[in-house]
Amino acid sequence: MGRKITIEPVTRVEGHGKVTIHLDDEGNVAQTRLHIVEFRGFERFVQGRPYWEMPVLVQRLCGICPVSHHLAAAKALDVIVGAGTGDGLTPTGEKMRRLMHYGQIFQSHSLHFFHLASPDMVFGIDGDPALRNIIGVALTNKDLAVQGVMMRKYGQEIIAATAGKKIHGTGAIPGGINKHLSEEERDSLLKGTDPMNVDKIIDWSVEAVAWFKNYHKKNKDFIDNFAVFPSSHLSIVRKDGAMDLYHGVLRAVDHEGNKILHDVDCQNYLDYIDEEVRSWSYMKFPYLKEYGKSNGWYTVGPLARLNTADFIPTPLAQKEFEEYKAYTNGKPNNMSMHMHWARLIEILHSAEMMKELLMDPDIVKGELLTRGEKCNKGIGVLEAPRGTLFHHYEINDNDQVIMANLIVSTTNNNQPMNEAVNFVAKKYMNGQDEITEPMMNAVEVSIRAYDPCLSCATHAFGQMPLEVSLYNAREELIDYKMRS
Amino acid sequence: MSKKVNFVIDGKECQSEEGLYLVEAAKENGVYIPTLCNYEGLKPKGSCRICSVKIDGRLTTACTSPVQDGMKIENNTDELNEVRKEIIELLFVSGNHFCPACEKSGNCELQALAYRFKMMAPRFPFAFPRKEVDASYPMIIKEQNRCILCKRCIRGIKDEDGKRYFAYRNRGQDSLVVPDRKMMAEMSPEKAQEAMDICPVGSILVREIGWIEPIGTRKYDKAPIGSDIENNQ
Questions:
Q1: Residues 6 or more apart whose Cβ sits within 8 Å of residue A436
Q2: Which of A236, A265, A410, B39 would you call most buried, defined as having the most Cβ atoms within 10 angstroms of its Cβ?
Q3: The pLDDT of residue A267
């Protein structure tokens, strides 16, 4: 008789989810589901609001990556106010937004790697839970913890300088930006007292990649074999195939590297992407229409971006990219734990981009806004820290939003996270009739690799501890564990 | 030359011209009496009661009380500040005020007063009234969720002939400040901006200019409400 295991909530991810694992009569894993159980309804309650509120209103979805929502909404509204589909802003408008965005990627990735993921690496996924957290890292590996805290702080300072506040700022407005950087702000970010200057931040980013590579060498079996499954990958890339986290065309490759979405205009995303609703989760399942619900799912985020991009347009990150790609002989990387490696390369790329932008004179002077002929529909797409983020708004003649559609990064990763949990469940639970601590840890680690922001994905808030229930084929609870 | 009168506010000896309203007379002496429905240049109404003071022991509104010789006024006392805080809290719960997504944030007098009186969480239940966003006028949007019915727009926004752009409709809890559709059709951009500026909250919005002012440059980013008067002692 089959059984069902439920794991909820999961720790050190942003939001709340639970996992159920169904066992068959032989005690093997028959089916695994990551359930997302919150609902917020942002898409509904923004209806009727003046459109220019969206960048400030919708960013309240999240306190971790509000800049991504802020900018995706602003990009969508650029289209509505006639400022082009992503490349029509003034040089200052474009560069200030990019600086804000790379600051955001940098701080969010730093938060994830150092605060959330590094405890698993420093102490092992079976390490003492009392130590396996950022405080434990600070007590045993002070330099790593300090580096993480200060790197995140630097990214936050970039956001504050461009958006007015570290969290929930107001910099991007339809058609551009509302401020320049002052020369004092720029100089402080470029040449501030150690470690708060961009050169130190780049050095630390290089060290962080080296730290992971060293860890990888010593833990090849875990990093290369934990939650590995074939997946397609999707992201935006610059028109020439370069990594571009702010603007580009949509590209997807399959698990072997064949292009399955050919650099299409983001304004046409609905021609290529659809979302499936499943009764057991509030989080939808996006898929490429051409390949259908079963085969059209894809991964987004750092792993996907390094699989879709042809190159990275900054020298230090490009060097790391080449080494990273060589590891899989240029083929797409489908190893979930390599997400951390990819994330750290993006940290380095973001640091280099911040320096390039800070040194650009357009940051401190120039026109802030441009607007043209209005239309009633706009789509803004960018690469948020966790992956591709879609904002789509339609307005009426009175400037009120009448339709909003948000596909957030974690929603795009819904099926991959389910696949990762399924992989882990099969490895740890086949033939087991009891929920083990290593199995709990492994499920958590597999989900966390995606840095899921479940609050965004379901537009819900809350913390996420971990709960596991085990059901037999008659749907009877035979084991249960909860971790707060 | 008008006659000077002497009066005392919270123990401070003050002097001003006779007949000035107390809010103005206090301001001349570097004393801030908080106001909300009051607006410089408009005849005072005394409707919001934020400026409640005690004159010779009797509770009254400072915006409508002309100053007189020998008055003894209580203003910045725990009792009165608590009353003011309660009024602010009631205004917040009786409308739908979500500062995080309001473009008037940083320039909003209600928000600034809430900060001044250290409003944390309202002690009264939220009414969550059903109100509409009236976006049917060419120059402005009337956001009824945020209107506190102070009538500043009704009293202050008029055309050259003295005709009003805004009027009251309904009574009691159904009261609304509504734009005159005919007048709105002819409203100039300058008049629209004037209307937005006279509104102490975010209820009158000029289209498409939200958040054009960066954080750090908004009125109350620079100095808390009342501090300009208090620093001028």
A1: A428
A2: A410
A3: 96
